[in-house]
Amino acid sequence: MPCTWRPVMRVSVDPDRCCSSGQCVAAVPEVFDQSEDDGVVLLIQPLPPAELQSAVRTAAGICPGRAISVQEL
Asked: Which among 55, 50, 43 has a CA at the least distance from the CA of 12?
């Protein structure tokens, strides 16, 4: 049986806008991480599963640098 799962959201980050607050990591550690060198956001899952999408939208909204973009597919 073929897989019928389709992503409904794509997440991207702009590391140049990141101010390393870590709020995104605290909100959704399954999707975001921070560089150990400078604390800049690292994207782990650009296509998060449905159960994390609300939290990803919240993380994008609370990002002080507005470094997180959410694209609805």
From this structure: 43
- 4's torsion region: left (phi>0), alpha (psi -120 to 50) or beta? alpha
Over the chain, what HEC string results?
CCCCCCCCEEEEECCCCCCCCCHHHHHCCCCEEECCCCCCEEECCCCCCHHHHHHHHHHHHHCCCCCEEEEEC
Of 27, 38, 33, which is closest to residue 62 (Cα–Cα)? Answer: 27
pTM of the model: 0.88
Interatomic CA distance for residues 64 and 42, integer angstroms: 16
Specify the pLDDT at position 53: 95
